[in-house]
Amino acid sequence: MYGQYQNNYNQPPPPPQQQQWGQQPPSSYAGPGGPGGPGGYGYNQGPPQQPQQQPYGGPPPPVNYGAHPAQNGYGGGYNAPPPQQPYGGHSPQPPYGASPAQPSYAGPPPHSQQQQYGAQGGYGAPPPQQQPFTQSQGARFLGIPIPAPSPAVPVNNLSGYNAQFDAERIRKATKGFGTDERTIVDTLSPLDPFQMEVLSRTYEQTVGRTLKKTLEKELSGWLENTLVLLSLGPLGGDIHLLHRACAGMGTHEDLLVELLLCRTNEEIFHLKEGYKRVYGKDLVSTVRGELSMKTERMFNMALSGQRDESTYVNHQQVQQDVEALYRAGPGKIGTDEIGVCGILISRSDAHLQAIAQAFPQRHRVTLSQMVQNEFSGHMRDGLVYIAKGAENDGQGVVRDAEMLHAAMAGLGTKDERMIYRIVRSHWNRPRFNAIKNQYQAAYRETLKRAVEGETTGKYEKALVGIIEQN
C-alpha cells in the first residue's frame, strides 16, 4: 500500500484555491498552549477563556463537532510558535513541558466544563456534555497559534519580517534557466506559520502565481514533496495530505491515522472547514467513501469532533474504563471493537494517560499490547496509535520518536513518511526538540545524523535545514 502512495504522491492534485488565512497577530502572540496537539500532545494547559469577540468579517455560525502496521510508526504533533522576531531567526521558546505563559494572542475556544463523568455509565458512553467549538478571532492548530482561516481578514504584513525581500529571493531563484534550490530551502525553512502565510500572499501578489505552483513547476521528486508541504503551513499542509490520502487508487489509511486521530475538536473543525474551502468537498463524506465497515465507523467517531477536553481526571471512571476495555477485549470471546473505540477516541488526553498507567497494573499487559493482540488491520493501527500516545510520557513524544525511526529502519527509506513526519513536527519547535532528544536517547544517534544517512543531495539539505531550525 505504501508503494502505491509513493507512486501517486508526485501526481499534482488539482490546484487549490488560495486560502484566506488569518489576521495579523499582536506583537506578542506566543504562549504555548492548547488542550493538546495530534497524538494527544496535551502537555500544555489551555489558556483561560478569552472574552468573546467578533472577528472582522464575522465568524461562521457555531458548529457542533466532536490510527496501520506497527512497522509504520505512530504520530505527529506540535506546540507554540515563537513570538514576533526580527527577520532571519527565531527567538527562544519556553522549554518543552514548561508551564504556559498567559497568552496575549487570542486564545483557543473555551474548554469543556470540568465535571465528573463517571456517572455517564460503562465503556462506550458518550463524553460529558460540553461547549461546542465555535470559531473565534484566534485560531490554534497542532498546538500552536496560526493565522485565522477565512473568512477572517488575511495577514498582509508582519513587523520585523520583510516578506517582499523573501518573495524576491524566491523569484530570482526560480527565474531563467535552472533553479537555485538552496536559496529556496534557506528562505522557507526558518519561517513560522504567520511568516509563511504572509510570504505566500506577497509572492502571489508579486509574481501572479501561487508559491505552491511555482515550487511544483521548478522542483521535482522528494525535494518538491518536502518544500511544497513546508510552504503550505501547518493547516494547509494537513489539508494537502488529507487530499493525497484519499486521491488516486486506494486509500492511505496509515496517513489518515496520523491526520485524524487524537486531534482536538478545534483542529477537526479547521480540517473540515479547510478541506471544503480548498477542494470543494465534504471531508466526512470523502473519508466515508474511502473506507468500509468498522474502520469507517472509527474515523467517523474522530471526525465528529466531540472529544472530552477536560483536564480533570475522574479516577473512578478510569477504573471503570480499564475494566470495560478488558471485558471488551481479552475478557470475552471475540472483541467488541466499537466499545473499545468509544473509549479511546472520546476520552481526554489526561484520562487516556491515566488509563494507560492503570491498565498494566491491573491486567499485566500494556494498553497498546492488548490492542495489538485483540485487533487487526487498520483499526488495530489506529487504536495502537492512540494507546502509544497515552503511554510512557503520555504526550506522544516517545511514540513520535519511534515513528521517525520506523520511517528509516529496515531496507529502504519510507521517504514520504519521513518527510511529512519531520515537516509536521517541526512547527511545534519546543516539542520537536523533545522528540529529537528522545530519538537520540533511544537510538544513540541524532535525528540529523540519521536523516543524513538516509538521504542525499538537495533533498538531504532541505530536511537537515528544517531539523536545524530548532
TrEMBL record:
Biased amino acid composition, Low complexity: 1-10, 18-30, 44-56
Region (Disordered): 1-135
UniProt-listed SMART domains: ANX (SM00335)
The organism's place on the tree of life at top rank: Eukaryota
Pfam families noted in UniProt: Annexin (PF00191)
Keywords tagged on the record: Annexin, Calcium, Calcium/phospholipid-binding, Repeat
GO cellular component terms, A-Z: cytoplasm; nucleus; plasma membrane; vesicle membrane
Keyword Amino-acid biosynthesis assigned: no
Entry-linked PANTHER family: ANNEXIN, ANNEXIN B11
Family: Belongs to the annexin family.
Protein name (database record): Annexin
Originating organism: Kwoniella dendrophila CBS 6074
